[in-house]
Design the sequence.
């Protein structure tokens, strides 16, 4: 995936300017920045939900005009169909990509197991907590074995505790089923935890303040939080964001 | 993990309260007619006594049949056409632009205002009743369904795009289910308006039916009998409401959770 000189505008207002980023297969790129810096807007451009004012998004060399095949997304607001059960929501993503009914259901059950929702297959989203709804969203996104997974502040709408639980669970799932991932978050911890590389956005209109390589060893788990390297990167990102805020 | 959802227990105190209020209303009604008011006015006991003979009488049966068949046919036509137009206006901005002044104007207008003209156009016939009922049902269905179809939550539209849904899939799998609660809301309003329309046409055009049954009996001081028919109409309205509510909860337990 490649962002080539992306400038995003909302009407007259330029949100971000001249963004260049590359994401190689199998890697995780985290985009972090203060709220309102346009990181979600960038992600939406990658998903083909909006068009950049200038520049091109390319995935496997193809310019993106609508959501390309094999790209899945986890939304901050979960984006589940309220009239479908957990199982049906997950299976639906498979059905529309051409998987036969029986295989789709089997694969859905497998993913429901993976995200720890066994026993809730027949529940409707409104009967579930936010954390469980997002587990469903995650299962749906992973079910199609995407070549690129877009994470739009996936844990942003959850309370602090649920958020932490889900972060580490996602980390575990990702280690077992690695997938190329673009991870947008305003949580610095999350960015460092998941990213092989972190793009720090700051300024108005925002630009990339710095690209930081995260050399923390894989697999990562909760113990990483206490390492000197984690703290050092965290501090560096924090300072970059704060510098931007003062401008 | 959260435990599986449980059903809300029935509130016994609430039911007892409702019964007490009902008993009070009936008692005050009965007492005030007996103690202070002229005796040709209906009383609860009189209505109860009149109930069975009225319900099994041929007159009432015919009136009931006339009204109900008109209401049923009018609702069917009005709701189907209204829902179809509502879906179309929700999806086609130009159609909405062109039709909305008429829809919202007619929706706000009391349908009874056209009955005198309708009787001239269509005659003092059951066609007039059918037309008024169908139009009364058409409007709320068109307006409510139109609102629903136009406002598919942006989150769901985004999900649909990311899932690369085709147009047909979008309409069938996203637009229709997310609009369904609005369709039901439209039908609920339509049922009420249809009953009002039916009775009003019968009053104004002297068509055989429950409206005329009430009118005739009331004017011949058979007010208890007239009241039986009034209650039947009330029960019909309540039953339709309860029926659609139950269907909504059974078939669409999620209907309150289509985020907007």
Sequence:
């Amino acid at each position: 995936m490649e962002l080539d000189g992306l400038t995003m505008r909302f009407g007259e207002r330029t949100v971000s300017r001249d963004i260049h980023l590359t994401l190689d297969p199998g890697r995780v790129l985290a985009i972090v920045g203060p709220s309102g810096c346009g990181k979600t807007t960038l992600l939406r451009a990658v998903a083909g939900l909006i068009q950049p004012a200038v520049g091109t998004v390319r995935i496997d060399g193809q310019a993106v005009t609508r959501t390309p095949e094999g790209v899945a997304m986890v939304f901050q607001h979960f984006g589940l169909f309220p009239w479908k059960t957990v199982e049906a929501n997950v299976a639906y993503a498979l059905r529309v990509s051409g998987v036969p009914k029986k295989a789709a259901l089997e694969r859905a059950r497998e993913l429901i197991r993976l995200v720890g929702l066994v026993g809730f297959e027949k529940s409707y989203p409104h009967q579930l907590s936010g954390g469980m709804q997002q587990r469903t969203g995650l299962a749906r996104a992973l079910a199609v074995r995407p070549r690129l997974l877009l994470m739009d502040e996936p844990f942003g709408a959850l309370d602090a505790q649920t958020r932490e639980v889900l972060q580490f669970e996602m980390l575990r799932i990702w280690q077992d089923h690695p997938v190329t991932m673009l991870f947008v978050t305003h949580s610095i911890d999350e960015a460092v935890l998941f990213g092989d590389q972190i793009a720090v956005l700051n300024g108005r209109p925002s630009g990339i303040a710095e690209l930081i390589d995260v050399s923390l060893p894989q697999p990562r788990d909760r113990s990483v939080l206490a390492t000197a390297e984690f703290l050092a990167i965290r501090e560096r990102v924090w300072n970059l964001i704060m510098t931007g805020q003062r401008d | 993990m959260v435990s599986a959802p449980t059903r809300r227990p029935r509130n016994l105190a609430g039911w007892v309260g409702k019964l007490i209020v009902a008993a009070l209303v009936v008692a005050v009604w009965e007492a005030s007619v007996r103690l202070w008011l002229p005796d040709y006015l209906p009383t609860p006991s009189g209505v109860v006594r009149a109930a069975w003979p009225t319900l099994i009488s041929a007159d009432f049966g015919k009136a009931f049949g006339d009204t109900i068949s008109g209401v049923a046919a009018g609702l069917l036509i009005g709701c189907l056409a209204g829902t179809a137009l509502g879906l179309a206006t929700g999806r086609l901005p130009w159609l909405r632009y062109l039709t909305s002044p008429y829809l919202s104007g007619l929706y706000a207008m009391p349908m009874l205002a056209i009955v005198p003209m309708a009787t001239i156009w269509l005659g003092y016939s059951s066609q007039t009743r059918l037309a008024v009922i169908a139009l009364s049902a058409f409007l709320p269905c068109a307006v409510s369904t139109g609102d629903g179809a136009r406002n598919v939550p942006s989150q769901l539209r985004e999900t649909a795009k990311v899932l690369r849904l085709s147009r047909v899939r979008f309409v069938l799998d996203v637009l229709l289910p997310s609009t369904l609660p609005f369709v039901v809301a439209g039908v609920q309003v339509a049922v009420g308006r249809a009953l009002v329309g039916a009775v009003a046409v019968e009053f104004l055009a002297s068509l055989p039916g429950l409206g005329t049954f009430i009118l005739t009996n009331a004017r011949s001081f058979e007010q208890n009998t007239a009241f039986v028919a009034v209650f039947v109409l009330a029960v019909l309205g309540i039953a339709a409401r309860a029926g659609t509510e139950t269907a909504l909860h059974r078939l669409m337990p999620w209907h309150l959770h289509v985020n907007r």
